Amino acid sequence: MVGVSKRVEAPSQGNREFTMTYANFAHIRDIAYDLTGITLSDHKQNMIYGRLARRLRALGLSSFDDYCNLLSEDSPELHEFINAITTNLTAFFRENHHFDFLKTTAFPNIIRKNMASKRLRIWSAGCSTGEEPYSIAMTLSATAGFSQWNAKILATDLDSNVVDKGRRGIYQEDRCTGIPNEYTRYLKRNPSTGEIKIREDVQEKIAFKQLNLLHQWPMKGPFDIIFCRNVVIYFDQETQKKLFARYHKMLAEGGYLFIGHSENLNRVSNDFTSLGKTMYQKK
């Protein structure tokens, strides 16, 4: 369990529907850390209140005391609790230089390296609602040389709700504005609803699964590429060290690791060579 941080009084309750004491927040913070490795600092109290107040209403509870009592070991509410507290900010082709690197450097190198096996494995760890793995899959589909390959993408997330949305591959039109013109051929627009669906041949490249990164991983690997972007910023440094050590073991020799723009491996791992712009290669 995470150590107790210096107490900061809970923000003013104002006209809040429910009272959340600091003891309530500390209890929720510790459960979140134990289950997910996510570190909730004291300034996240308002955010946690807003997300969990919806659960209290749905459950017909009158106080955070009642909700905290509900979060016992093996409680079915723990599943909904995890879904509620996790953050799922994403976009198609976010940090577009990563996908340019796939197209111009990583994919050509892997084609040469794996020509005999014609095998490619990519993992989007923290895939959220699917925009990242679909961006990878579209880039893969547009790259010459993979037509006869056994190429698969694994997309995982802690939140089962966003995994289900990603699996469906249907998005509002405004969510797709960041997709470069060269990849719009992989989209199908429903004229009656305005929704955009990812083309089936692109969807077929991806397997969506719910996965807690801190638990045992069922897959064997090795992966040629791992995307883990804007995930470890929610973990403390010790958890980050363990996670990147596991990624290192799961990557093929010379495999590539992509992390988020606000993340780095300084004082976390020496197992990767920096390629610049939060791109790394296994030593």
UniProtKB/TrEMBL annotation:
Its EC number is 2.1.1.80. InterPro entries: Bact_Chemotaxis_MeTrfase, Chemotaxis_MeTrfase_CheR, CheR_C, CheR_MeTrfase, CheR_N, CheR_N_sf, SAM-dependent_MTases_sf. The keyword Transferase applies. Residues 13-283 form the CheR-type methyltransferase domain. It is an enzyme of class 2 (transferase). It catalyses: L-glutamyl-[protein] + S-adenosyl-L-methionine = [protein]-L-glutamate 5-O-methyl ester + S-adenosyl-L-homocysteine. Keywords: Methyltransferase, S-adenosyl-L-methionine, Transferase. S-adenosyl-L-methionine binds at N88, T90, R94, E132, D157, N212, L213, R229, N230. Pfam families: CheR (PF01739), CheR_N (PF03705). One of its GO terms (biological process) is methylation. One of its GO terms (molecular function) is protein-glutamate O-methyltransferase activity. The keyword S-adenosyl-L-methionine applies. PANTHER family: CHEMOTAXIS PROTEIN METHYLTRANSFERASE. Methylation of the membrane-bound methyl-accepting chemotaxis proteins (MCP) to form gamma-glutamyl methyl ester residues in MCP. This is Chemotaxis protein methyltransferase.
